[in-house]
Amino acid sequence: MAELKLEGPHTPLPPPVGPGPSRGLSGLQITGIVLGAMAVTVAVTLFLVKSWLFPAPFKPVRLSAAETQRLEHKLAVFEQLDSRPQPEQRRPLPDPSRAEPQPAPGPLEPEAYSEEGASREIRLTEREINAMIARNTDLADKVAIDLANDLVSLRMLIPVDPDFPFLGGKTLKVRAGAELAFRGSRPVFILRGISVMGVPIPNAWMGGLKNIDLIEVFGSEPGFWKGFADGVASIQVREGNLEINLRE
What we know:
five-stranded antiparallel β-sheet
């Protein structure tokens, strides 16, 4: 068989494609990445230290004019005054943002004791409770209370004595929660937990009191819990509200 030969111009094949030269990061780029990571780390560390060891004070609750009037009316009922607030008998709630000197109270007038017509109901909102706490200048920016369904939560900022090791002069951020309800004709108080600086305290450190009904355990013996339980006819904690009825 004769060999077939193709005549024509010869087209050279392209060279094989291989891996190109490696292009790694330059020394300047690596230095920039390291410095950026160090800056982010320092910023996050400073933020955590500031929020952990130097927490910002709480903002005191300031009631509106209508809320202040309602609270004054409730306080008047507690004090067994007339059901209508009388400005000449009581001073209005002070504004926590202004530290004005308060005049000295006048002398008390003799009055015969009587429980006739006295209300045994205590109804307060979460804002009213925090506003009354804010009246105490020592606690205004250190204590805050939250009311949820059957749950009372407490936040506190506690200054540490300067001579205390490690944390001397710092401010501890403490949180606590307790279930507060009324079941089976008796109030219920269950400590749900306590945390310091965001770290929950072990139950063993709290004497095993976590998640148990303190009234059920200690309410049968003379003392605070028995007296508290015997004096409460009903209690209800709802979102932002507290209602307590006292026994005679």
